[in-house]
Amino acid sequence: MTEWNQYKGDSHNSGLRRDLEGPIRVGEAWTTDLAGAVGSPVLDRDTVYVGTTRGNCYAFEAETGRRRWTVETAAATDATPVRTRERLFLGAGDGTVYALDPATGEEQWHAELPGSLESALALSAGRLYAGHSAGLSALEAETGTQLWNHETESAVVGAPAIADGREGEQRRSALDWGQEETLESLEPSTLDADRRPDPEHRWGATQERVFAGTADGTVLALEAETGEECWTAPVGGTVAAGPTIADGRIYVGDDGGTMVALDAGTGESWFTYEIQAGFTTSATVLAAAETTFIGADDGYLHVTDTTVGRRKLRGWLFSRKGVELDGPIRTCPVVAGDVLCVGDATGSLYGVAVDDPEPLWRFAAEDAISGTPAIAAERLYVGSDGGQLYCLEWDAEEQLH
Q1: What range(s) does the Pyrrolo-quinoline quinone repeat domain occupy (predicted)?
Q2: pLDDT, tens digit, for every residue of 210-263?
Q3: Are 46 and 62 in contact (CB under 8 A)?
């Protein structure tokens, strides 16, 4: 199995494959035409799976692009599916979730959500999470049985993110339940005194939680096993593409131009970064490099630090927003090795060096890039509004010479 089996590669929505050699340049391996705008693909060892706005789900041979099977539904299926060893989970816009045989596309079970599907599916610890117009639901992955449903005042939008409670072990924060650190040892620049989480609300190291955003600008944290609310936090507008979990924090951008970093244990704010435009993607965080990337409709890939949300790039006189692209950002940033890949509304897909954020290459698709890329070893898969699924490739050994 590849590690890119769900939206942005994992249940944290991290968008990272730092273990791979990233593309310094790319070439087109194959392209295939589909019916409808293409969603974000997922992968296994030898197959690419993707849905479209026309309601079709496709499986393609990853190496050649040869079609293995097609499943047709009555509603859009461009929400990112989830692949496990036994099943492919597919969500349709009418609120139906399907479990398919990944080898044949045959249905194993289906389940009806309380509302229309509004987000990519997410999977962790045998539970499948789906955000919809009435809230957030958890299904048993084996059978499709609804485990719980948490109602919200507005639709849950963007992919949910799931954490097991150990994500903050490398950061000195109130999440460090299993370490000898104390709140008094926290650096003032990292966590202001008036925002220090209450020790009574520490997040246990084995406690699993699911985080989601809503259309009315709320971030919520729920107990993954029960759906019970742990905390909620307001943001400025509709959450874009869902939360990202990194190093004990939850990063969320909204269409009002606000990105916030919240303590995963308490929901307390660490920082706020604001722009005049609206954010269009989730954040992708390189915790070790203390760098956050997030796209916006002003055509910039914004680059900030992870401590106080300050711009990281410097110009001659002033700090720079980030990396300017050809148009509004359409895909969530994903990282292969030391190269970030991101697409925009003009149909351009870029490779950007993460250490010194500047474009390395640009690939021109026929239409606007519509789905977040899926990354494998020396391969990248991405769709367009015009119904094309592209496979781009590179030679890691050749790049080293």
Answers
A1: 28-112, 201-392
A2: 999 999 999 999 999 999 999 999 998 999 999 999 999 999 999 999 999 999
A3: yes
Bridge partners of 382, per DSSP, are: 390
Q: Tell me, what amino acid is at 351?
A: G
Sign of CA dihedral 223, 227, 230, 232: positive
CA 175 to chain CA centroid, nearest Å: 22
| Residue 399: its H or E element | helix 396-400
Cβ neighbours for 200, distance < 8 A, ≥ 6 positions apart: none
Q: Which residue has the tokens 């993460």?
A: 354
- pLDDT tens per residue across span 367-395: 999 899 999 999 999 999 999 999 999 99
**Within 13 Å and on the Cβ side, how many CA atoms surround 184?**
0
pLDDT in the model for residue 2? 57
CA-nearest of 274, 152, 159 to 217 is 152
Q: What residues does 313 pair with on adjacent strands?
A: 320
The Cα–Cα gap between 348 and 390 comes to 12
Compute the C-alpha angle 275/281/287, nearest 5°.
85
Specify burial of residue 180 (Cβ count, 10 A radius: 0-12, 13-18, 19+): exposed
Structural domains of the chain, with CATH:
16-164+207-390 (2.130.10.10)
The H or E element containing residue 231 is strand 229-234
DSSP 369: B
